[in-house]
Design goal:
By secondary structure, this protein is mostly helical. It has a domain of 48 residues. It is elongated. The N and C termini lie far apart (46 Å).
């Protein structure tokens, strides 16, 4: 795979990205995790069929886990090693 030619627009974009990198990291995050391909495809299919974004999935899942914790139904025994 060959690297694309540096154009003035590409160079400007790189300078801009370098300048705002720290600001962007301060306001957002990335879990950077990997899951098995079959599960990934199942989740993506579900999200597309129901028009749900991955961000909403994370937010709603987090809320549900918080509620389970508050209700005392969150199973956390596996964390005690």
């Amino acid at each position: 795979m060959r690297k694309r030619e540096d154009t003035p627009a590409r160079l400007a974009r790189r300078r801009y990205e370098e300048k705002i990198k720290d600001k962007r990291k301060a306001v957002s995050g990335n879990f950077g995790t990997m899951i098995p391909r079959p599960l990934f495809e199942e989740i993506n299919t579900f999200l597309k069929e129901n028009k749900i974004t991955k961000v909403r999935l994370i937010q709603e899942g987090f809320k549900a886990l918080q509620k389970m914790k508050d209700d005392g139904t969150l199973y956390t025994d596996f964390l005690k090693d």
